[in-house]
Please model this.
Amino acid sequence: MKLWRSAMVRRVHNADGGTKATEQRSNNFIYERYSNSYFGRSTMWPMTGKEIYHIITGKNIDSFPYSLSQFHGISTDSRKINPNQIFIAIKGEKYDGHLFLKNCFAMGIRLVLVDNQSKHYLELSPEEKNMCIAVPNVLASLRQFAEYFRKSFHFPVIGIGGSNGKATTKE
Model:
């Protein structure tokens, strides 16, 4: 497997709102990719609260408190999140992300994806609930959000699985 260590990227914005990126790699191999999404933009981040709400729920809503706020990513780890990211409260085998909702709000997080049946969500104040997108299944909604992003890639995506060899392959 050959890895590319250097690339020069040139972006051209098209009339349809998409972007054509051409990468000139060290062996003169040229790779082109196109990006155009539902919202007519050429990159995935930042996104507004309105866009995120629409992707997750399928509904258009103008009265969502953070409709025009810009967000720059997601995190499932409340210890490593920054205020411009969305916190995804996932319930796992050992930890429940909903336990950390109050901590996230104290750190300045403005948008959280939560399970609408979580007792921790139900205990939030009305102001804190306004910062939540409450869904029946957080993991399914996260998958739907990820699927939206994956569909916006117009280039092949390769995954390497298994328990042996991945670390040595990248070296």
In short: DSSP finds six helices and nine strands in the chain. Strands lie at 7-13, 19-25, 30-35, 47-48, 70-71, 74-75, 86-88, 112-115, 132-135. The mean pLDDT is 75.
